[in-house]
Amino acid sequence: MKRKACLQDGEGRNRGLRDFKKWQEGDEDCGKITQAIFEGRATKYIVENGIIYMRNNWNEKQVFVPKKARNLVLKYFHDSPREGH
User: Residue 23, CB half-sphere, CA atoms under 13 Å: how many?
Assistant: First the structure.
């Protein structure tokens, strides 16, 4: 199921790909992944419009979630009324 590329943080602000790009730019893991991509060592990762994506087992792109945003993403997908929890 594809979801809209927008999350709401704890303060009710909408967060989207622009925010992920900003968060990725300041993330140590993202820096390592970017370096590996440009050196040809990270074949399951790609960069498009400055955003790091990871390809899953079905070759679908998924935004790489930096540490700063992981709790936000987990909360969104776990606590959403649509998830039945």
Answer: 17
